[in-house]
Amino acid sequence: MSSNSTDEMLKMFFSLETESGNETESMWVKPLGGAEYEISNIPFYAKGIAYGDVVLGEREDDGGLGFIRVLRSGDHSTVRVVVFSEPRVQDVCARFEALGCQLEIADIKTLIAIDVPPSTPWQPVAATLEALAADGLIDWEEAALSRHHVP
Q1: How many CA atoms within 13 Å lie on the side-chain side of 110?
Q2: How many Å apart are CA 77 and CA 118, to the nearest integer?
Q3: Is there a contact between 29 and 42 (Cβ–Cβ < 8 Å)?
């Protein structure tokens, strides 16, 4: 299969500046032609990126595919949640799935990346986040907020 095939999924690498230095997050992307790619999973660490965004990428010297910038929003939002009690992770996940969100659980088991699709209203998601935080179960942050979810 050629690298220009739109059926092929590729890994794109995103450079992240962290307290411990520079790190990298990889995400699956779908080639759209030329240097454009569509994000095909929910980011755990990269800010300003959401599922369905169309991004610009370039081949790096080592052959990897590097992120340059977002070209167009896919109108999804990304929220990161840390659950303070691992036994409660599935309960927390179920609350967001019931609202129409998709999610992924990180290897560390208490970090959840939540995709809020444009068809899901923001207010119930925000109310659930705030209620869980007020109960001391989670901490959370908006990693990418689409125009459909701006409060």
Answers
A1: 10
A2: 8
A3: no
pTM of the prediction?
0.87
- pLDDT at residue 43 is higher than 80: yes
Under 8 Å between Cβ of 114 and 132: no
Q: Where in the chain is the domain with CATH 3.30.70.2030?
A: 77-144
pLDDT value of residue 1:
32
Angle between helices 89-97 and 122-134 (to 10 degrees): 160
> How many residues are recorded in the chain?
151
Select from 52, 57, 116 the least CA-distant residue to 81: 116
Q: What percent of the chain has a predicted confidence (pLDDT) above 70?
A: 95
Dihedral pair phi/psi, residue 106, rounded to 5°: -75, 170
**Is residue 4 predicted with pLDDT exceeding 70?**
no
Radius of gyration of the chain (CA): 16
CATH topology of domain 77-144: Alpha-Beta Plaits (3.30.70)
pLDDT at 5 over 80: no
